[in-house]
Here is the input.
Amino acid sequence: MSQRITGVLSPVITPFRADYTPDADRFIQQCRWLLGNDVGLAVFGTNSEANSLSVVERMELLEQLVASGVDPARLMPGTGACALPDAVQLTAHAVKLGCAGALMLPPFYYKGVSDEGLFRSFSEVIQRVGDHRLKVYLYHIPPVAQVGIGLDLIERLLSAYPGTIAGIKDSSGDLHNMTAMLDRFAPQGFDVFAGTETLLLANMQAGGAGCISATANVNPGPIAALYRHWQGPDAVQRQAALDALRAIFAKYPMIPALKAAVAHWSGDTQWRTVRPPLVELQPSQTQSLIHELTAAGFSMEGLNA
Amino acid sequence: MSQRITGVLSPVITPFRADYTPDADRFIQQCRWLLGNDVGLAVFGTNSEANSLSVVERMELLEQLVASGVDPARLMPGTGACALPDAVQLTAHAVKLGCAGALMLPPFYYKGVSDEGLFRSFSEVIQRVGDHRLKVYLYHIPPVAQVGIGLDLIERLLSAYPGTIAGIKDSSGDLHNMTAMLDRFAPQGFDVFAGTETLLLANMQAGGAGCISATANVNPGPIAALYRHWQGPDAVQRQAALDALRAIFAKYPMIPALKAAVAHWSGDTQWRTVRPPLVELQPSQTQSLIHELTAAGFSMEGLNA
Here is the structure.
């Protein structure tokens, strides 16, 4: 974990068979396509339905991914959990496999918990994993987790574990929050990833490290291109094109829409399956989504059929 | 699971050692004290910090409890989880041990999920467990889970699984919601437990089955007495006395306050420990809580010191 991971990462969607078991072969294939588009792998994120997977399922998928030859330096698996032992087990496992970082949700069942309680949660994981290779990326996603990670908590964690607390994924969608984190912590080597590519250019301009975004699952190449060329003359146009595409996906439930798009362009209908409590798109929604995407000139080049 | 469980149940607080491991001996001792006060055991509820426990920890504690001689007909363990395989494993395990019921949270990570998705979640668990002994009690606690269980979903589940969907714990705190469920579903044998003893009398008067309440951990005898005597001449006074005591606890973070009370009256300070992200009461809070409780004439008789 010596080299910091930066750039564009995808919270890789998790393929399921009809019986809802995870499909490692399709998963590895999708990960390879993303890597081929210069996108890293934030596997087991919100868009991966990770919290709908058991600890064992997550560990097995990660092992199979690494065993397939994927470079763990391109991996930032989600390892946060409500239960401390689960978070410790997942995080230690990711470190052992050589992953570049661990993206950690706070425990998210209890609401209105204190910074002291959240500090203890992260602190216990770091101490119990007890490995200098560990790089923790905090995962701030208040719209879903309802439990956020504020600036004072980050400061306290950075002070206590300066070599370990490496950055954050900010999925608040709040530009002000993102720039406040950059102003306060980027000088200490704290890497801020925007939680959407809509804020990628703004994040890079303010000193950020990249983005980890749902739509990197389907539009990896152009998002990665903006990351590479954010200082180029066409950066604003690139950002506008990304925003236009995201706006189409945002009209639908995101995870089922991502899977519907992959199913369509790969010709592999199994990709449509989501685990309960999520529900796949209705046929009319799928038709409308694909129509809009096609009209916008979208395609997924090189996706294995 | 032929005999329906009713009355007052406690979401039993889970004792931890200093290293945050669950303490089965203290747990069993506390469960026995509750049973001796005519209170059943809704172990692994919100107040049990159940979502802060791993699946294995929950199964081991339940096995030790049953092995200690506790009658599983008095047990309604929480078995809901974000991940379908976890909910299936926990529920099948509870049924195998002969528990009277399983109290099931919906998957609670994703917010704004559809009734179709929640129906599939519960339906998959019921089908995969595949045991006619299973009695599912739905757990509606929108202030914490943020994912609620509405009347239309209950109706659909009752229609699909009339012998299995046995009731609900309603922790909405909304009297109107509780009576609406009773009006619509009690005639079909659907047992409604109030999520607080504050609504116990109202629930019984409207045809309910009892309550499952945090403060049953510390005030079991008087709550159980109101259940037994809800048609008696002093029911309103009994309810008022319960409300007055609950009002004291409600001034503090509930779970740490329950544990502080048990620690004080048992003389066993280890009971104060909560798992992160929760935090134990500050010394000044504990002092104030114990002072108020003592002034109100509260004690915990027969609690093992």
About this structure: The interface with chain B takes residues 20, 46, 51-57, 82-86, 89, 106-111, 113-114, 116-118, 120-121, 124, 143-147, 275-279 of chain A (CB under 8 Å).
